[in-house]
Amino acid sequence: MTHDEIYEMAHQAGVKNEFNYDFRLSIEAFAKLVAAKEREAIANVFQEMTKNGHPYMIRMTNAIATIIRARGEA
User: Fold this and answer.
1) What is the C-alpha to C-alpha distance for residues 59 and 74, in angstroms, rounded to an integer?
2) Local confidence band at 70 (pLDDT 50, 70, 90 cut-offs)
């Protein structure tokens, strides 16, 4: 997410235009936390799908989960 996308979503959510520097940092930090929580939830769904499945499927879903989690590290 870009800074502009975060601010636009905040505006759409009803956050007023009180965007001083500290407030912008708080909004960005909040958006990053929400995104990280969602990535982790999605990665866990992939891993749970084949928890007791075929070894190939387990490796594949673990790889997908790793890729999803890595998006937050870029």
Assistant:
1) 23
2) very high
What is the C-alpha R_g of the chain?
Answer: 17
Model pTM above 0.90: no
As given in the structure block, the two tokens for residue 62 are 């673990």
What integer pLDDT is reported at residue 21 of this predicted model? 78
User: Nearest CA to 30 among 14, 50, 9, 45?
Assistant: 9
How many other CB atoms are there within 10 angstroms of residue 37's CB atom? 10
In single-letter form, the type of residue at position 53 comes to G
Is 37 in contact with 68 (CB distance < 8 Å)?
A: no
- Distance separating alpha carbons of residues 55 and 40, to the nearest angstrom: 22
Choose among 74, 5, 72: nearest CA to 39: 72
